[in-house]
Amino acid sequence: MKLASFLYQGKRSYGIVQADGVIDLGRRLGDRYGDLKALLQGNGLALATRYLNDAVDVPLSAITFLPVIVQPEKILCVGMNYADKRKEFDQHNPAPTLFVRFPDSQTGHNEPVLKPRHSSEFDYEGELAVIIGKGGENISRDDALRHVAGYSCYMDGSARDWQHTWFTAGKNWRQTGAFGPWMATADEIPDPHQLAIRTWLNGRMVQEDNTSSMIHKVAELIEYISTFTRLSPGDVIITGSPGGVGKKRNPPLFMKEGDRIEVEIEHIGHLSNVIVEAPAVGLAAAH
After folding, report:
1. How far apart are CA 118 and CA 287, in angstroms?
2. Which domains, ranges and CATH numbers included, belong to the chain?
3. Computed from CA positions of residues 110, 127, 201, 101, in that sequence, does the dihedral angle turn out positive or negative?
4. 103: cis peptide before it, omega within 30°?
5. The whole model's pTM is what?
6. How many of the other CB atoms lie within 10 Å of CB of 129?
């Protein structure tokens, strides 16, 4: 089952994605579960499957995609989690590299990704997103995948020239992280480490790998993260990018206004966004 969050006629909702449209779960379950995060918090995925054979309510062309989880409590991001990426950045620390994103740094499929005006090094990173369905802390590695609701695509737009001492300032500009188009439920992805992952910039493939190349696997990440913070339904773990990022190319390759960036993950979906210059707001930033 594939589940998306969306806007239709000015109203937020969520639903089951089919080839010809969306079955609107907000119409059916909205009184109990107001959004997709609430559905996960209420352990409502099994209930949602009852509507799989309903006729679609809205064509895909009529909706505006939102981030899969619109307001996650936590967005935990993993850096340097593919061997080629670690080589590019000359990283040797064996521990998982973690940082956070804020919810307003996200945008949905087919929506603009905003290039920060104060950055001239806006880079792409295609990544697998893990959506937590069952909360917990001190989760064992053996039990970890049972806590996963599903998987999605993520384009972790990064202002490299703002990553001075750590990643946070380079990762949290408004609408720089694209999340979608939908979540493939975990039953459709029995092994999250057998998925081809590719990124295109203006039709040119710039990243190609397989999630089998991850250094810290999904179960290990859940075990590690849940040791120091409680995971909640709707939390998102972004698992890291393969090599091929623009910063380490010769010459460097960065995203600019009008570019199209796409991330595709096997058995999950194809995320596509156009880069738009962020609107000028306020005074020039300190750098």
Report:
1. 8
2. 2-65 (no CATH), 75-277 (3.90.850.10)
3. positive
4. no
5. 0.95
6. 28
